[in-house]
Known about the structure:
Number of domains: 1
Mean pLDDT: 84
Order of helices and strands: EEEEHEHEEH
Strand order of the largest sheet: 2-1-3-4-5-7-6
Oligomer: single chain
Amino acid sequence: GFGLVARLFDRKLAGIDAMRGVGFAICRVIGTESELLSIGVSPAYRRRGIACSLLRVAMERCLLAGARAMFLEVATDNIAAQRLYESHGFRRVGIRPDYYQHADGSRSNAYTMRCDLYRACGTAPARTTDRAGR
């Protein structure tokens, strides 16, 4: 697994690194699958494309680590996050009833979403051929 942090330089997004910053993404890779465990941006820095950049870099890093797909869970009422994920190629594949527990004891559902990293990152898998070249 790994974590990414977005940092600012002179009020502009300077890059993604493992230092300190205004946003983060935490992922893990197991075999050919990866999972976005958490992603967040400080409220003062939202709506600037930081989450988009973090997600894109996280997807690329997981692909480089051998993952072919990425999974995540998102609250069914978090429309903004769902749109972000869908814009990066994620599609709903299931629902997890009562996935989130809130401070008041109530619970809410989550969608499970999946993304084909080769398709989303614009990289085709290497073709394998047999001895006859097929």
